[in-house]
Each structure stands twice: as structure tokens, then as C-alpha cells.
Write a structure and sequence with these properties.
Elements: E1 2-5, H1 9-20, E2 25-29, E3 45-47, H2 55-68, E4 74-75, E5 79-83, H3 92-102, E6 108-111, H4 112-118, E7 129-133, E8 137-139, H5 141-154, E9 158-161, E10 164-168, E11 175-178, E12 183-184, E13 187-190, H6 196-199, E14 207-217, E15 232-235, H7 237-240, E16 242-244, E17 253-257, E18 262-263, H8 276-287, E19 296-307, E20 313-316, E21 323-327, H9 337-348
Parallel strand pairs: 1-2, 1-13, 2-9, 5-15, 13-21
Antiparallel strand pairs: 3-8, 4-8, 5-7, 6-7, 10-11, 11-12, 14-17, 14-18, 14-19, 15-16, 16-17, 20-21
Helix pairs in contact: 1-5, 1-9
Length: 374
């Protein structure tokens, strides 16, 4: 039996695919499932192939996009990527434009006049260059996770709502202790997101729980913030960290910032500090002037399992037989949901991991892809 620890998008997709491949699988995660503190449990995440010059993730998303495009929870609203200066080689925006153009994606280059005419919510003078990618959008992430867990249960996965308090065994792991008692397993897949280092403290040199702020606003005129005039967007993200979404069906507009973040114990209270909302409103006043005073509906800290280099960690533990780690989503893992379970299941069942996802040591390498889903 394979035990999957963690009911986020890594664990849920892995459990589903392993069951589809004929394995007996138990997935254990705290109640309720899906858990509201899971990184995926929000109204939206960005789905895009734009990864600068990073061909690994661009190639993986080229596999995932056709699957998203058949998913009713995906919204193909496009992706508007703008910069406050001219695009230049080496910039995330320039290199994404070049990479996707080579793949034949029909991108539209943005200038200040075109931005003002086609996307009037923007302060066009502040963003003189960029492009629009029509083959991108966003997905209802919380709903995707809930559906994946339901599909896993239907495929025969046993879902156990309990907290894992530790693994059984040291050199060889034979299961996990939970608040509902021990669960024996031939293989334990630790896919616990930000809680991964709680179960495996030795991973603290590779992974860290990092919180990033997300705010939800309710515009007075939501009809002005829908695609195609207001698609998913990034506002000089490689420099500023700002990105966001069109309004959803409830008229809620989500804005996020991917910055350095805050290292946070995953069990600590999650509250937005007093400087966060003013920072967001200053950005809105400069970029989307009509949104500067929009009522705040809710806020949250999204807790990433951040790896030392931004790459996922999907590999067997080198010192503990019977353990596979599937973590390190680093704020950009959700968009790979249609293929993520296969990537993890392959390793669980004996395949060699993708080299950049394999076990590594601090300082071994550093990558610089733009890491954001939302």
C-alpha cells in the first residue's frame, strides 16, 4: 500500500494517478479536506506557459495546456504581461515573448497606445512595453483541488482526515503515525506542502514555508474587469512581483504580490500585517486608478513550500528508504496539475526523477524563472 501524506494539489494528483495505475492508496490530510490553509485552496491560479528562457517548465506546460483547455474549471481569458521599461534580452518578459513566439503562440505586442485602447483600466503611460498571450488564463484552483480529491476517492483512494505526527522508522520507513493511529505502508509519499519540513526537519536546508499576501477586492463596476479587456495580468512582475486576475463569477477581483515573502511556521496564525493593504492600494492607484478605493472583501497569506532554487523536489529520500518527497511547489506548482500526478507517480514507481527535480544540496544550483501562480 502507498500512503500519501498531504491533500494539496501534489498529494491529490499523485494519489489519483497511483490509484489509476492499479495501486492501493491511502491519502491522509487534516480535516476538512480540502483544507482551507492549503496553498491551492483559493479562488484562482494563473495558468500560463510563459517562463522566460526556462525551457523545462515551458515544455511541461506545453503538455499541460491541452488538458487545461478541455477543463471547464479553466478560463482561457489570456495573459497580459507588461513592463515599465522596454523589453530587453534577459528579462523574463522579453525571453517569454521570444520563447513562445518560436513555438507559434500568436502573441500581440503591447505599446502604450494599444494598451490604452484595448485595456482601458490600465494606466497605460506607466507600462510602455509587453505582450498579450491568448493561450493562457486562470483556473478555479480550490474547485480543481476538491474535484481531484473526489476523483481520487472514486478511483479507490482511501481518504483519511487526520494529522500525521511522524513517520514510522528511520533508515527504513514503514508508515506514519497519525492522530487516528498508525498507518502501515510500503511507500510513504510526503506531499505535505509547507508542512513537509515539520515531518522531515532535515529538509529545512532545501525547503521553507514562505508566506505571500493575496487580497480580494470588490470593484464598484465589475463589468469593467472581465476579459478580454481585463485578462489575467502581470505588472512588471520580474521587478515588482505584482499580478492578478479578472473578476470571478461573484464579482471578486484578486490581486497578489510575489516578493521575498515571510518565513512562517505553517501552524502559526496567518494574518496580513498593517502595511500590506496600503502597499496594495498604492500599487492600484498607480496602475489601475479606478480600483484604488475598491472595497476589500478578504485577505490571506498563501503559504508556499519554497525550494532553495524554485524547482520542485520530486525524488526518493537518499537516507530513508520507503520515502518519496513531492514538495517544493515554490508558488508555481498548481498550473501543472494535469500532469503533476504522473510526474510524481513515475518516481514513486521507480522511474528516475527529472534532473532538476531530483535531490540536491544547498548552493548546488540556482534558477531564476518567474515563480507565481497566485
Amino acid at each position: 500500500m502507498i500512503l500519501v501524506v498531504g491533500g494539496g494539489i501534489f498529494g491529490a494528483t499523485a494519489a489519483l494517478v497511483l490509484a489509476q495505475r492499479g495501486r492501493a492508496v491511502t491519502l491522509v490530510s487534516p480535516a476538512p479536506m480540502p483544507h482551507p490553509d492549503a496553498a491551492t485552496t483559493d479562488i484562482s491560479k494563473v495558468v500560463r506557459m510563459d517562463y522566460g528562457a526556462d525551457t523545462l517548465y515551458t515544455d511541461l506546460m506545453a503538455r499541460a495546456m491541452p488538458l487545461w483547455e478541455r477543463d471547464p474549471l479553466y478560463h482561457p481569458d489570456g495573459f497580459l504581461i507588461l513592463r515599465r521599461s522596454a523589453l530587453a534580452p534577459g528579462d523574463f518578459e522579453h525571453d517569454s515573448l521570444a520563447a513562445l513566439s518560436q513555438r507559434g503562440v500568436p502573441l500581440t505586442r503591447m505599446t502604450t497606445p494599444r494598451l490604452a485602447a484595448q485595456h482601458p483600466a490600465w494606466n497605460a503611460a506607466r507600462y510602455p512595453d509587453g505582450y498579450h498571450n491568448p493561450r493562457a488564463g486562470w483556473a478555479e484552483s480550490g474547485a480543481v483541488l476538491a474535484r481531484t480529491l473526489a476523483e481520487a476517492a472514486a478511483a479507490g483512494v482511501r481518504l483519511v482526515e487526520a494529522r500525521v505526527t511522524g513517520l514510522i522508522g528511520q533508515a527504513t520507513v514503514t508508515g506514519a503515525e497519525t492522530t487516528h493511529g498508525p498507518i502501515s505502508a510500503e511507500t510513504v509519499v510526503v506531499a505535505a506542502g509547507s508542512w513537509t519540513t515539520t515531518l522531515l526537519p532535515s529538509l529545512s536546508e532545501l525547503l521553507a514555508p514562505i508566506a505571500q499576501p493575496i487580497l480580494h477586492f470588490r470593484p464598484d463596476h465589475p463589468e469593467r474587469y472581465v476579459a478580454p479587456t481585463f485578462p489575467t495580468w502581470a505588472a512588471d512582475i520580474s521587478t515588482t512581483g505584482w499580478y492578478g486576475f479578472p473578476v470571478n463569477a461573484d464579482g471578486i477581483l484578486k490581486v497578489a504580490n510575489h516578493g521575498r515573502g515571510i518565513r512562517l511556521d505553517p501552524d502559526a496564525p496567518r494574518s496580513i500585517g498593517p502595511t500590506v493593504e496600503p502597499m496594495f492600494r498604492a500599487f492600484l492607484a498607480d496602475t489601475f486608478p479606478e480600483l484604488a478605493a475598491a472595497p476589500l472583501v478578504s485577505s490571506r497569506l498563501c503559504l508556499y513550500s519554497d525550494s532553495i532554487d524554485g524547482d520542485f523536489l520530486i525524488d526518493r529520500h537518499p537516507a530513508r528508504s520507503g520515502v518519496v518527497i513531492a514538495a517544493g511547489g515554490s508558488g508555481h506548482g498548481f498550473k501543472f496539475a494535469p500532469i503533476l500526478g504522473d510526474l510524481i507517480a513515475d518516481v514513486v514507481l521507480g522511474a528516475t526523477p527529472i534532473p532538476r527535480f531530483a535531490w540536491r544540496t544547498p548552493g548546488q544550483r540556482k534558477t531564476e524563472q518567474a515563480r507565481f501562480d497566485g
